Amino acid sequence: MDRAVTISQVAALAGVSTGTASKALNGRGALRPETRLRVQQAAEQLGFVANAAARSLQTGRTYTVGMITTDSIGRFSIPLLIGAEDALGAGQMSVFLCDARDDPIREQYYLRTLLSRKVDGIIVTGRRTQARQPIGRDLPVPVVYAFISSADARDCSVVPDEADGARRAIRHLLAVGRRRIAHVTGPEHHHSAQMRAAGAADTLAAEGLRLATPVLYGEWSEAWGRQAAGILLSTGADVDAVFCGSDQVARGLAEGLRDAGREIPGDIALVGFDNWDVMVDGSRPALTSVDMDLEGIGRTAAEMLLAAINGEPVHGHQARPCRLVPRASTAV
Amino acid sequence: MDRAVTISQVAALAGVSTGTASKALNGRGALRPETRLRVQQAAEQLGFVANAAARSLQTGRTYTVGMITTDSIGRFSIPLLIGAEDALGAGQMSVFLCDARDDPIREQYYLRTLLSRKVDGIIVTGRRTQARQPIGRDLPVPVVYAFISSADARDCSVVPDEADGARRAIRHLLAVGRRRIAHVTGPEHHHSAQMRAAGAADTLAAEGLRLATPVLYGEWSEAWGRQAAGILLSTGADVDAVFCGSDQVARGLAEGLRDAGREIPGDIALVGFDNWDVMVDGSRPALTSVDMDLEGIGRTAAEMLLAAINGEPVHGHQARPCRLVPRASTAV
DNA sequence: CTGAAAGCGCTAACAA
DNA sequence: TTGTTAGCGCTTTCAG
């Protein structure tokens, strides 16, 4: 709990002025190498760390971006954050993560906090991909939406192409020889459920096929997956594959099917969505799944934010492709 | 992307000096109520948000604390963060979350970043409860360790009392009439595995009992739990309950036992550890588990940090009790 | 009750 | 090559 060291103490120890010390430490100006070294050693010796507040007051830059998760931080925000950090870390910028917990009041509070801290830009994320109202109007810093998208088409939003994910899942099932494919997913009103179901239907239609049963909408839970297994089998539909809207649904379905004596993938092949490690690895057999590349989305969002900070804003939606990760549940 | 508004613009609009405007907006000094109101309205009208850098330069306080997760952010860090935010939010302080990803270089980088940002204090967390080397020496701000603990006994560390958790698990199993209890857990060298195993053994010893089999050490995974089921049954030990070192192990064990035709809790009762929602709810039957109250740990850590910031530091380890959450896997 | 002025720590012109 | 100086936007004495 020592008091912090200022640049004037460093300058004094090195026997130079503060201006010279500043140049020496920031590699600016023209200094004798020897002087530069002397200042650097003094800084080292005193454990000097520049006061960011003073610096930003002068330069107008903080080299910090804020990330607001409108829903609670979790499975989606973390990879997004990691991707953003990777893209920003190269430029020595850091990320200030704020959890608005799905509360508009808290969200506006954090927005104010970030603006008062004069962050260079803001990334907004959330648990659902559905479009949301812009977080603010005429903000003094650029904003990029990641995973979630802004309802204002002029805003920059980096989102997963969920229909693409569904397409890859269906194509994969077709490739391993399945034709009678069902789709079990989350709530009918959920944006992701809709996109994925539409993507699946469209892909089959393009091949002159259709889903073996109507889409089974339910919840994003294992319990629903288990229940859906019973429903599916009771319809008597001769299904040889199921594309699920989430890994949790898929895992529940796998259990339900196994309990009913069906072999996976022998009788029925299974594809999930999210590629959530604990689910795909915990499932028996291990679950083929669609990965939305959240890190990539975070990275791209950060890159677009950097572009905007540098005066070259990108507008509109940027849809990024998904990736299929094959595992035992669809092995040939 | 408008330019930010400064207090002098507010002052100009309200027809007062910047000093007066400052007092009006911060509720300090003695001002005519009418003046105060006029300034507040001007600020409102212009959308004024005070520049935190300028303020902190003057006051030396940033009303920000940094939180460094030494391991990657995840299941443990988030509730800790939420708890800390709850405790700090009351005092209008915000939390800057940094993910060091288990990389000492990154950790030191973030430490420097936080110090340069002049945070009022730092909370250090991690994925394991084991003691770690202090993050720095003679830092200019107070530090509190949450969940993880510092190897320096003088540092303030808020940790879960894992032996207490184990005790509650065993007591619960005894209370529902079980006597032949086994323990299946993670790696033998893992601090948490050791604490929990010791807590379980001690509690049984206090009742004149002992574990029905030697502790089964393995991994923190469902796969190990399933494997352990086979091992347990092959020993022929007549076990009527298993206390598991984690929910994942417990879930795997539940599956393995069911596959072998055992009823849960009829033949064998099961208790997990962590109270991780997707595991306890996904398990069949739903899993009784030990909750370490991570939010409470985060809250306490933040309170201790606040105390230290206010000049009343608390030293040493603060162990917090766990909580048992009974579910169907131990229902009578 | 209000204004003027100094200064927090740093950077960036400009002088020397 | 180095030092001097003027702020960045805000708070806070101290006068008035």
From TrEMBL, chains A, B:
Keywords of this entry: DNA-binding, Transcription, Transcription regulation
InterPro entries xrefs: HTH_LacI, LacI/GalR-like_sensor, Lambda_DNA-bd_dom_sf, Peripla_BP_I
Domain HTH lacI-type: 5-59
A matching Pfam family: Peripla_BP_3
Protein's UniProt name: LacI family transcriptional regulator
